[in-house]
Amino acid sequence: MSEGHNFERWFEFALSKKAEIIHLSGYHDIDYEGLFHRFPNTNNGFECLQDLYLSDSRMTDQDFQFLLSNCIALESLKFAFPLKLENASIVGHSKLKHLDFSYSRLDSNVIRDAISLVSLALYSLSDGCSVQLSNILKLTTGMPSCMRNQLQIIPSPYFLCNFFHLVRLVEACTLLDKLMIEFPYMLASDNEDMLETYVGRRCELSPKYLEISSYSGATSQLVFTLYLIDNARSLKKATGGS
């Protein structure tokens, strides 16, 4: 659907026709629950929807959960610039294969037991966004072995802002055998107190071989390196250099 006004009418029309794909772009508010109650209890348009893309939506957390619970056939979900969405939780959505939350202002994002998920995009999340990933095995086991077993990371200059996501990425790659990190050039961090938030819990990481380059000794780099060494219980060899 093209940009324009009367988004709710467009959305209702598409659902009434049992549309499998709905793409909406532009600032809009939709009463999803009100729409749902205007349709039959069974075999309604929500149950047929497989591909949903919303850009600049004013969807709330409650709207999001309502949509997920009723769009049971949804395979692809993409939100770009969700203006009001703060906490997204996707738990046990068995048919969802593709998920994209790029350019969001989320405070938290929980993705758990999405057993069919094969692609995930979380580009340009807000600073401090909490991301929890668990039991999404197809996302990692479906990768080619060269990607699944080895991961090379070159963080951006805004290393501290992305530190939390970097930690969670390493935790989520449960089959990772070799991890290579090239740090960006940076001075000692002025925000040492922020780091405790990111490494508060311990877990068992999978890498056996760790290579670190361009290490400058900045606080965030040191904390991340120690975090990897302390939690990679099967670590056999670690090498590094400036």
TrEMBL record:
Name of the protein: F-box/LRR-repeat protein 15/At3g58940/PEG3-like LRR domain-containing protein
Transmembrane segments: none
SUPFAM superfamilies given in the database record: RNI-like
Superkingdom per UniProt: Eukaryota
F-box/LRR-repeat protein 15/At3g58940/PEG3-like LRR domain segment(s): 42-125
A Pfam family hit: LRR_At5g56370
InterPro entries according to UniProt: At1g61320/At1g61330-like, LRR_dom_sf, LRR_FXL15/At3g58940/PEG3-like
